[in-house]
UniProtKB/TrEMBL annotation:
Protein known as: VWDE protein
GO molecular function: signaling receptor binding
PANTHER family from the UniProt entry: EGF-LIKE-DOMAIN, MULTIPLE 7, 8, VON WILLEBRAND FACTOR D AND EGF DOMAIN-CONTAINING PROTEIN
The VWFD domain, residue ranges: 234-295
One Pfam family recorded for the sequence: Ig_VWDE
Source organism: Thalassarche chlororhynchos
Phylogenetic classification of the source organism: Eukaryota, Metazoa, Chordata, Craniata, Vertebrata
C-alpha cells in the first residue's frame, strides 16, 4: 500500500451552469508517481449509516456531484471519500480519507432557543449552505421562506407563546463563505401572557414558497425548538367598593365618584382608566367600578 498521503478532502458548494453542485477538493501529494484518484460520494441515509450515490475515477484534484433532488436532496449530509493509486500499478492504494459531513440545506443559528417572558428580543439567523440558482430571467436569485409558530403544549389553548418580527424572509444569493451562501435574520420574543402556565415549548417552522424547481419545492427545513421560561408577573386589583391593591402590594380604598387613572406605564404607551359611580346608601359613601378603558 501507499502510505497515508494527507489528501484532506473538503466539500464546498458551487453553481455549475445554473445548477447546484457539490465539489470535493483534495490536495495532491508531492509524489513523483503518476497518481489517479477514486472519489466515492455518499449521504447519511439513517443515523450512522451511509449510502453510496456516486463513484468517480479521475486524474483531477476535484470531483463534482449534482444536487438533483432525486438521489441527492436538500437536508442531506454528504461525504466524499478519496483513495489515491498509481496508474501503472492500481493495486498500490493509499488509505481512503473521508471529508467532514457537509449539510446541504437551510440552517438556523442557534439551532434551538431558550428564552424567558421578559420582553427581550433574540436574534435568529437563517442561512442556506448551498447557492441559490436563478430559475428564470425574470426571477431574482432568492428563496422566500414562510414562517409559522406552533405551541407544542396543545392542551393549553391560549395565546401564541412566541412572536416573530417577520412572517416571511427572503434569502438573497450572496458569494458562499463560511458555510453560508445566503442569510437573513429575524427576532423572536416570548409573549408575556400574565399567566402562570409553566415553561412551555414552541417550534418555528420555515417553508420555501413559490419555487418551481424540484430541489426546493420538495424540501421543508428542520423546525427550531423554542423553550419559553415562565416568569412571575405583577398583579394589581380594584374590587368591591373599591379596595385597591397596587403592583407592589400597597392597599387603600377609594370611595370617590368620578374617572380615575389606575395605572400608567412610564416606558410605553399603556394606561388604564376606571370610572366609579355611587352604589351606596344614605349612610355610607361607597363607589363601584362601572367602566374601564385600557390603552
Amino acid at each position: 500500500k501507499l502510505t497515508s498521503l494527507a489528501l484532506q478532502p473538503v466539500i464546498t458548494p458551487e453553481l455549475v451552469q445554473g445548477r447546484v453542485h457539490l465539489k470535493c477538493t483534495y490536495s495532491r501529494p508531492s509524489s513523483k508517481l503518476p497518481l489517479q484518484y477514486m472519489v466515492v460520494w455518499s449521504r447519511l441515509s439513517t443515523p450512522g449509516k451511509k449510502e453510496q450515490i456516486q463513484r468517480d475515477t479521475t486524474l483531477q484534484s476535484s470531483s463534482y456531484v449534482e444536487m438533483n433532488g432525486v438521489n441527492l436532496k436538500l437536508g442531506d449530509t454528504v461525504f466524499c471519500t478519496v483513495t489515491a493509486f498509481t496508474r501503472d500499478t492500481p493495486e498500490q492504494q493509499s488509505l481512503p480519507e473521508e471529508s467532514k459531513g457537509f449539510y446541504a440545506g437551510i440552517k438556523f443559528l442557534p439551532e434551538s432557543l431558550q428564552i424567558a417572558e421578559d420582553g427581550k428580543e433574540h436574534v435568529l439567523t437563517i442561512l442556506s449552505t448551498v447557492p441559490i440558482a436563478c430559475p428564470g430571467h425574470d426571477d431574482s436569485c432568492k428563496i422566500t421562506l414562510q414562517l409559522s409558530t406552533e405551541d407544542l403544549d396543545s392542551q393549553l389553548l391560549g395565546p401564541p407563546n412566541i412572536a416573530l418580527s417577520a412572517c416571511q424572509v427572503d434569502l438573497l444569493r450572496a458569494p458562499c463563505s463560511e458555510s453560508s451562501c445566503a442569510a437573513a435574520a429575524l427576532t423572536v420574543t416570548a409573549v408575556t401572557d400574565f399567566a402562570q402556565d409553566g415553561n412551555r415549548i414552541s417550534r418555528i417552522r420555515a417553508e420555501p414558497v413559490g419555487r418551481r424547481d424540484l430541489l426546493w419545492r420538495a424540501y421543508t427545513p428542520k423546525d427550531v425548538k423554542v423553550t419559553v421560561r415562565d416568569l412571575p408577573t405583577g398583579n394589581c386589583y380594584s374590587f368591591t367598593d373599591p379596595h385597591i391593591i397596587t403592583f407592589d402590594g400597597w392597599r387603600y380604598d377609594n370611595y370617590k365618584i368620578g374617572t380615575f387613572l389606575l395605572c400608567r406605564s412610564l416606558s410605553r404607551a399603556f394606561e388604564v382608566h376606571v370610572r366609579q359611580w355611587d352604589c351606596g346608601g344614605h349612610r355610607s359613601a361607597t363607589a363601584c367600578n362601572c367602566g374601564v378603558a385600557a390603552r
